[in-house]
Predict the 3D structure of the following.
Amino acid sequence: MTRSEYLADYSTSTLHDERAACLQLTTDAYAGSDSVKEYHADYADRVSDEIDRRNTN
């Protein structure tokens, strides 16, 4: 299962929660290294893309 398919299985409210959690993990208070911040920022972008896809359909 690809990441996009995985996100497609989430409810919209769960996607919003996932995005909020990822964004929190990109703050200095939670993330340890730049690579961790980048990973969570990338995942938050993917979640945002899925939310946007749902809003345009």
Observations:
- DSSP finds three helices and no strands in the chain.
- The chain has a mean pLDDT of 89.
- Helices lie at 3-8, 12-24, 34-56.
- The first helix runs from residue 3 to 8.
